[in-house]
Amino acid sequence: MLESLAISIVNAVPVLSGVPLWTITLLIMVVVAAIVLTFAMVYSGLATYVERKVAGDIQARVGPNRVGPVGLLQFLADGIKLLLKEDIIPAKADRFLFVLAPYLVFVGSFAAFVVVPFGVGLIASDLNIGIYYVMAITSLVVVGVMLAGWSSNNKWALLGGMRAAAQIVSYEIPVGMALLPAVLIAGSLSLQDIVRSQGGLFGIFGWNLFHNPFTFFSFFLYYVAALAETNRTPFDIPEAESELVSGYHVEYSGIRFAFFFLAEYGDMFIVSALAAACFLGGWHVPFLDAEALPAAWGNLFSLGVFLTKTLGLVLVMMWIRWTLPRLRVDQLMRMAWKYLVPLTFFNLLGVSLWLLLFHGKGIPQMMASFIG
Amino acid sequence: MKSHAEALPTQEMLINMGPQHPSTHGVLRVILRTDGEVVVNAKPDVGYLHRALEKIGERVTYAQYMPFTDRLDYLASMNCNAAWAWTVEKLAGIEVPERAEYIRVIVCELNRISSHLIAFGSFTADMGAFTPFLYAIRERERINDLFEDICGNRLTYNYVRIGGVSADLPDRFLEKTKEFLDYFEPKVPEYNKLISYNKIFVHRLANVAVATPEDAVGYGLTGPNLRGSGVPFDLRKNEPYSVYPKFDFDVCVGTGERGTLGDCFDRYMVRINEMKESVKILRQAIAQIPEGPVMAKVPRMFKPPVGEVYFRAENPRGETGIYLISDGTVNPYRLKIRAPSFVTMNIFEKITKGLMIADVVAVIGSFDIILPEIDR
Amino acid sequence: MEPKEIFEKIQARFGEAAVELQEEGFRPAFLVVSPEKVREIGRFLRDDPAMKFDSLMCLSGVDYPDRFAVAYHLHSLAIGHQIGVKAYLPKESPSLPSVDDVWPAANFQEREAFDLFGIVFEGSWDLRRILLPEDWEGHPLRKDYKYPESYHGIKI
After folding, report:
1. What is the model's pTM?
2. B310 and C27 in contact by Cβ < 8 A?
């Protein structure tokens, strides 16, 4: 697809015909990646602001309101402050790993943005192994967290890093298992295909959420496991501020700390985007067929719908954080292995049997075929 | 499988839960030896806030010592002030006017509510629920406003004097207090709905750090910690002082409702229920308070008779006892403050054996210790 | 029980160890006992069914003009009475048996008395300085304590 785009650009601008095609393709890829990265960074910055405002609302106070109109530019002020901070590396810390860890976490989180289906034609790279790629690349976060815990030369950081590694690795299984029903229904790992498979039926009834009871259950299992993946309360023991004094990022300051933070919000977006794409119908606009609309309108509406769903789920994550207390580490592990893993396995079994028995049709589709 | 795990060589980790830590309620250092996440030994190390209050007491006069008792337990400042005043009055046999005693009880109970609010707020914040802390602070702000009306201060009040209180209640104070009580009374059921019976919260606290009644008595636990273990002993009921016999209230005892009797959850619930009882006492006190003077005649250079006295008051954190030895001069001869948190720390090493690191934080919060009291 | 009855019981059981009863001007009354027998007397007071002093309210060191003392304030949760026990100690190397196996609450308070007065509690399971740093010299609450000029090079 990029190649055809590159060819069309060369045809439009004859002066570029001297340049080999692969440079143009590469340039387009870089531009697309830059756009996605910019979106991700701006989103992360604004997410910190929204989190503080939501926290303020829940806690009967105001939140940031000084910098910019209603405090909107707070994240810029924070970013600039963090950039200007002194670069402190602990004396006996492992320098190379200490510097490397935030970048690994950052890459692990933001590299997943390229397969997020923002709209009808708005996806940076429609890999045919979409979900598999996301699961693999977000595992880099574990490596980064463990390196951060180890290289800080600090027992609290080490404890936090170990806990984080155990937690993220344990919850990868329920997350993967809970996403598989959507894959089974669509018959493809590509995220655009999964979203397209939820089309028709006035939008909301085509959602995978209502396809059959097992996928309904699956959505909630996925959401809970994803909360644990992203180290959010009630599963935030790796960075439990009041127990481990910030856990694995206790020795980090300045822009390195900012990377951990931004990566957390990036992760939140990714898991919410996956939930929206796999279960909540993705970019399908209600009552309209987005693919049939003219390109600009279709993209715009679908982008709007998708962002609404994703950011709504992110808001729910923030809401949960400020409401619930924290689980202890052994309770957390027990929940993963004794409850979520068996439940997601049975769920998967249930979806497979359903699809076998009903030839891939969901409840709304069967009802539609009865009525119409 | 088990023998394979035992054959793996592991090392104990020595972690310092240092003087600077968000959850140790002050400058408390806990030296943890852990085997992974399980605590093998947790030794508290106190003394970072030692200000030699007892030595200072031997240099200043009785009236001059009142501001020092403020800093003893700054969250229950009125209670500490009043304990000192009652001790000296017991020694010298001073008769305090009834209105002054009622005022003392009113401010002590208000301070008890505000101290329990902080205990509740910081405990839930340690558990990871950040929001109830701000709700507690919001309620406490209103109490601070009431205290500001009375004596001008919001934290260390220095309001009670030997022989009475320093000034009478300002205008409309009793109405404002009643408004506050009407505002506050529905809040406690709200907290229970929001956090107290939340499944995650209960799971964190139930069956953690159980203090049996025998242990509680032997190790010197007092106040809500003792009552959380099921022992129905409240100084305001069992050895009443001041005008407490005139009030009708219940003693809140732990019942083991969500776990074993004497676990962290019981101690937490005792404090929540005590806030409700304080509201009851306050309502009765406001209704019954008589008119009259608020200060007895105490000479400027006050010289009590020679003797030794021990008096104890029911503070929000336990039983604050003051052992006062007077030799007839204007300065006390020996002044020993039996601070509840200090004696409570005796049980810390025993009760944290086998817990996880996260539970150590729960234990510190559930015993509601405060460092200035421990270190004096 | 009245302090006089308690004193007579102690006298009947321990004879010479019960030295005197201080009642006038002392609230609660004090049973002055000899320091060597403090642990046995404490155990007797705790276990005797008529007295049952199961709660140690307060343990303090005192620096009188001519001698030291350790004052114990006891309370019975079951019966409700209070009593004080005092043991006088000489000024040079004051020491007496520890009661932390009778009342575990005594441990921190004994450490405090050791730290601030220098009174040694024999048989205590853990006797170290508690409020002051481990390498502090001197016992501050003694009346003849001289304030040091500096600590580890820091002028104080």
Report:
1. 0.89
2. yes
